Amino acid sequence: MANLVEIRGLRVAFDGMPVLHGINMDVAPGEALGLVGESGCGKSVTWLAALGLLPSKAHVTGSVRLQGADLSGAPRAQLEAVRGKRIAMIFQDPSSSLNPVQRVGRQLCEALRVNRGLTGAPARAEALRLMDLVGIPDARGRFGNYPHEFSGGQCQRLMIAMALAGEPDLLIADEPTTALDATIQAQILDLLARLRRETGMAVVFISHDLGAVAQICERVCVMYAGRIVEQGAVTQLFERPRHPYTLGLFEAIPRLYGPREPLVPIPGTVPDPRRLPRGCAFSPRCAQARPFCRDERPDLLDQQDGRQLACAFPLPGADPARADRKEGVLQ
């Protein structure tokens, strides 16, 4: 089956400062793809660039294709025909995305007018159906409420409803559970999984929460310093991570079972894009690094087990002493 979206050689620079360094990524129809990594690794920038949503000072090169149609440098009219209708995006802070002085029903109807040409009674009926679909209680009674009259979780549900208004082929969920408590996070993840099953749309789930990724995704890309360092099936990477950075993300997960132990954080921070190491960007933080790693940058290469990996000295597999942390994530 042909891919829904193909990204090739995507590079982004702000005022001459590179922040993405040749991203290659595919999304198949109906697939759930996770994109993980620390803040500042380029997860959100990748998809903002793909949709042409970065500010004018951003210099973007590379190819982004939607079912064969090239979106790279496409005119505004072509991109507007894609945004919302073919590819929709929801963000981690719904309070900044909803208009605080407009009733939520009006905002939903506006999305339906723009994306599907619905107005009047048909738009209202469809807006109420979407509110019911995403689990807003008493949709008819709350149609005329303002955003501040909804909880954070309900506002995120409203944002999902607005994203669904265009019946998109791909939904990009950019850390949609970050500002929510654990119970509401679980509800939103269950909602996204259910909507994907019912509508057949693909989902790109951007997150630093490995547990959330394990819950709804089939495949995962691990990003670091503007590059993909490992990608493959979720069970494959979570049970047997081979890049030291991927393993470091798991090591930082609190233990769910057994005696308490101090967390094992990854030392240091994501490097400043203006001062990237000459070789592997992760080498200053990597316990496995050798002199070669500080001089040579590894390419992302296909592995015999089907994953892709960018590491000159990959790990043989998961550390059995920490296996309980991975099992806790996958449950």
Automatic annotation (TrEMBL):
Domain called ABC transporter: residue spans: 5-250
Q: Which family does it belong to?
A: Belongs to the ABC transporter superfamily.
Q: Which Pfam families match?
A: ABC_tran, oligo_HPY
GO BP annotations, alphabetical order: peptide transport; transmembrane transport
InterPro entries (UniProt xref): AAA+_ATPase (IPR003593), ABC_Ni/Peptide_Import (IPR050388), ABC_transporter-like_ATP-bd (IPR003439), ABC_transporter-like_CS (IPR017871), Oligopep_ABC_C (IPR013563), P-loop_NTPase (IPR027417)
Coiled-coil-forming residues are none
Q: Per its record, what are the GO molecular function terms?
A: ATP binding; ATP hydrolysis activity
Q: Which keywords are on file for this protein?
A: ATP-binding, Cell membrane, Membrane, Nucleotide-binding, Transport
What is the recorded name of this protein?
Answer: ABC transporter ATP-binding protein
Record membrane topology: Peripheral membrane protein
Tell me where in or outside the cell this protein is found: Cell inner membrane
One cellular component term (GO) for this entry is:
plasma membrane
Keyword hit for Lipid metabolism: no
Q: Main localisation, per the record?
A: membrane
Q: Which domain of life is it from?
A: Bacteria
Instruction: Give the SUPFAM superfamilies listed for this entry.
Output: P-loop containing nucleoside triphosphate hydrolases
What CDD domains does this protein's entry cite? ABC_NikE_OppD_transporters (cd03257)
From which organism does this entry originate?
Antarcticimicrobium luteum
